[in-house]
Design brief:
mainly alpha; Tetracycline Repressor, domain 2; Arc Repressor Mutant, subunit A; 0% strand; single chain; 2 domains; 201 residues; elongated
Length: 201
């Protein structure tokens, strides 16, 4: 019982650190997030954070995973709702895109993408996250095809991959704050592209 309690306390401590890291990124950006700054926000020591994560890279990756776990639950809920395939696709696109230039999840994605080529564990972790989005989008499109909402000859894996790649590009522009890349504009463009890639019947 004591061991279980300690594991539970450790899990709560880690989740609190990850939540605070995401809040700090949203408020001040990634450049100002250091182990010492995060420790100060949490009222603890940098060594205590290192005990759980080992490095800043690992902290950032776990923060991204923690955020993506929440989105996975939202995608699962979306796929189970009694909505038309068209509406589900629109909501999927909306869920994928960043909320704005300070979206901490997408800020992390961009930072970690730059580190991926030289970091195999990071490559594996990011691929797992990407595969989850691909798998759920394919499931959504497959169901739409079976219901006669999308063309019967739709190449589901290819169209899903193409749409996600397009969403990555739009999302990066939103997070970088590029002119003409506000979230509402990106959302409109994403939906138009989705309609071209995945024609509605």
């Amino acid at each position: 019982m004591v061991g279980a309690a300690r594991r539970r306390d450790g899990q709560i401590a880690q989740e609190r650190m990850l939540e605070e890291a995401m809040t700090a990124i949203a408020e001040d950006g990634l450049a100002t997030l250091t182990m010492s700054a995060l420790a100060e926000r949490l009222g603890t020591s940098g060594g205590h954070i290192l005990y759980y994560f080992g490095s800043k890279d690992r902290l950032l990756l776990e923060a991204l995973r923690w955020s993506e776990t929440q989105l996975t639950a939202e995608r699962t809920e979306l796929l189970g709702r009694r909505l038309t395939a068209h509406r589900k696709l629109a909501l999927f696109v909306e869920l994928y895109l960043p909320r704005g230039p300070r979206d901490p999840r997408w800020t992390l994605w961009i930072e970690l993408w730059a580190r991926t080529p030289s970091n195999e564990p990071l490559q594996v972790a990011q691929q797992e996250i990407d595969d989850g989005w691909q798998r759920d989008l394919e499931a959504l499109l497959d169901k739409g095809v079976r219901q006669g909402r999308f063309a019967a000859d739709l190449d589901v894996p290819a169209r899903a991959s193409e749409l996600l790649a397009l969403l990555d590009g739009l999302s990066t522009r939103v997070v970088l704050g590029q002119r003409g890349a506000e979230r509402d504009v990106a959302l409109k463009r994403a939906r138009s592209a989705a309609a071209l890639l995945i024609p509605h019947l």
